[in-house]
Amino acid sequence: MSWPRAVAVALPMLLLAAAEARPHHAFSPVYDDKRVISVTGVVTEFRFVNPHAMMFMDVTNDTGKLVQWTVEFAGRLNLSEFGWTADSIEAGERVTVTGNPTHTGSARMFFRKILRADGTELLPGNAQRLDTIEEQRRRRRQNSQQP
Hints:
147 residues; 4 helices; 30% strand; alpha+beta; CATH 2.40.50.140
């Protein structure tokens, strides 16, 4: 293959790949990992997408004003490894979300835990995995101590 022909073939493929690439941000420039806050409100939408799943919720602030909060999650692929689906959170649910706020104080946070009205919790996949691993360790210790 000649050099001009190789460039003519490779260039469109590179442009297509660049168009598919989406900008991605690091956690620490946006979110404050040293602070954790909780807000309670009604879910208006849950988007189970990549690079980050997103949830939008209406929260009544201290002055009685309705504020739309944005909650950012890990991506769909990461969440689905731990059993999450597009139906894991439904519009209309009243929830309390705990997470890391932004450095700017905007109505946005990174998800750490959701507490549903019935008392059940949704945790990020890694936390659920760590809980499962810890439970397995407890059972092994228990079994090893039995005669």
